[in-house]
């Protein structure tokens, strides 16, 4: 069944044209057929369709592509947030609180919480989300997290190397062997990606050499590569991601000139995914997205929705932060949250409105995309059900 979406105030295509590549169109409409965009053009020339959706002058954009999220977890860490606001530094240690709670939760509880979080994202315009494991850190709990994640998304990431769990702190090498051996074998069938928290500045995370071992093992098991890198200080994460051809290196809070050069040279493969909600929630320095984009780095924006360092599922909030604090224009931020996220997932079928792309759309209670940052904190975006 075909559906015509018409009376669009502003159509945002993210097709690479116009300021920041945002590709806005006035007086346009589109036709969706079998879940794909079948036609885009002037509304006056729209073909007949089986059904019509009149959006009454609202703005239509690609659905947001949230390429970094941790949604399978239990427990509450609001006190940790309050402590950081009072000056306590973040070092990754609070992840253990979530691990303990998640291990105790039932499959049914985790499934219900995960489903609710994904619904919350769709209610704010996100139509694709990547979901990581990482709050189980045993073979059975990591496999369970990935199996549940695969029920809600195709973009599932194995993050057994999130932190070294408390019971393994006296045998780091043994835990890395578990992550790259028995745990990987159990988890790889449920995942598309492998990730690692490469952060020598945290005693809980992984060194460059440990991260390399995890990534190479994951690659050998057929998984694509992702990296948490350079969040707490300068380190090897970005360079490692570029060297190994990771699809994305995420955080990028502390970058050297060599890191930026590496990201520029690897822009066709590796996207720097910026997570401004984390900087907001940890009082960390803001990455200079303006400088990265001007240098030729491929950038994306994502929520990093997680119970510790950014318990926000709102991509519009992320867009507003990137405009206010990281130097992006409103158009550039929208592109980074849509087509940028698609690049970070090595996807060509989402994050844009073009014939042949998936009909993953968002509609705004606003006449144009500028309102996403102009009306920060107001829930004006939602997924358009076609």
Q: What report would you give on this structure?
A:
- With 386 residues, this protein is an alpha/beta fold.
- The protein is 34% helix and 20% strand.
- It has helices at residues 78-85, 95-104, 107-122, 139-149, 172-180, 182-187, 208-220, 237-244, 257-265, 276-282, 289-295, 315-325, 330-337, 339-344, 371-374, and strands at residues 2-6, 10-12, 24-25, 28-33, 36-42, 51-54, 59-62, 64-66, 126-129, 131-132, 156-161, 193-198, 224-229, 248-251, 271-274, 299-301, 361-364, 381-384.
- The strands form 4 sheets. The protein has a 7-stranded parallel sheet with strand order 10-11-12-13-14-15-16. It has a 5-stranded mixed sheet with strand order 3-2-7-17-18, with no helix packed on it. A 4-stranded mixed sheet has the order 5-4-1-6, with no helix packed on it.
- The longest helix is centred in the N-terminal third of the chain and has 16 residues, at 107-122.
- It starts with a strand and ends with a strand.
- The relative contact order is 0.17.
- The model has no long low-confidence stretch (mean pLDDT 97).
